[in-house]
Write a structure and sequence with these properties.
Elements: H1 4-32, H2 37-44, H3 48-67, H4 73-86, H5 93-118, H6 127-130
Helix pairs in contact: 1-3, 1-5, 2-3, 3-4, 4-5
Length: 134
């Protein structure tokens, strides 16, 4: 069973990761169907391509803060890789959003593998076990 604080951080990390995935998928759908990013960004309440990219980066920052609370070295390395993808070349927006989407999905898989590996080690101690000896 997960400690409450870790469960909370995992929940919010998942929400921000999902938000990034949705933005990438909507952007790809729009671009492939002739809708510009500027039009899509207005639907999100943002301003232009930079607004969409900044929205992704802000979601990533929130994701990173939550992941730091539970991730191991492998998870943090994958997180850094995702940050690198967010800062990659943006000349071809379809390639950019495809690349970021792949990175988001890879990071989600890394988190799943992390919890499969550490799950047997997680144990919540009862209150009696946490008390100092008298």
């Amino acid at each position: 069973m997960l400690p409450k604080s870790m469960g909370y951080k995992l929940y919010w990390a998942g929400r921000y990761l999902e938000r990034m995935e949705n933005v990438c998928r909507c952007a790809l759908l729009s671009l492939r169907n002739g809708l510009s990013i500027e039009e899509l960004s207005r639907e999100y309440g943002l301003e232009g391509t930079e607004g969409m990219i900044n929205y992704l980066k802000q979601s990533f920052q929130y994701l990173r803060e939550n992941v730091r609370g539970f991730g191991d070295q492998t998870v943090l390395i994958q997180l850094n890789s995702l940050e690198f993808l967010l800062d990659s070349e943006k000349e071809d927006l379809i390639v950019y959003f495809e690349t970021v989407l792949k990175g988001v999905n890879d990071f989600g898989s890394t988190i799943e593998k992390f919890f499969v590996l550490v799950k047997p080690e997680m144990k919540i101690q009862s209150q009696e076990e946490n008390q100092p000896e008298r």
